[in-house]
Amino acid sequence: MERKKQTLIAVPLLILVLISAAVFYVKVIQVRRDYNAIVTDLVNQEKHAEAAEALESLLPRTTGDLREDAVRTLAEEHRLAGTEPGVAFDQSVEHFRRARELDPDGMEPQQLRALESAEAKAAGL
Question: Going residue by residue through the chain (125 aa), what tens digit of pLDDT does each one get?
Fold first, then answer.
């Protein structure tokens, strides 16, 4: 009787653990698919501002190696979006600022100068 009672508790608990693991796995796969779609549809098509926006919304759902890849790609897309022709100076500065937050070592000298100039202007110097 005691053994049957333990089995009645263990089986549903095992099923719950398996379902939870499956749901987690499906979510991880979906986030990876979303990231790959952004890279294919936006990054590879050089739609940098759109890619940065899409990656910003995806970033909170990423973990582990995918998060590192997403952060690196996001920083690069912000850097590129800030250098696109026709982008207003203020928008470029915002893209460069976000890129610097994500990957300070990846900034190019002219991007850093633009940031420093905007920050000096904002500080009234």
Answer: 567 667 777 778 888 888 888 888 888 899 999 999 999 999 999 999 999 999 999 999 999 999 999 999 999 999 999 999 999 988 988 999 999 999 988 888 888 888 888 888 877 76
Asked if 84 contacts 48 with a C-beta cutoff of 8 angstroms, the reply is yes
Which residues, 6+ apart, have CB-to-CB distance to 19 below 8 Å? none
Instruction: Give the residue among 69, 43, 66 at the shortest CA–CA distance from 54.
Output: 43
Amino acid at 24: F
pTM tops 0.85? no
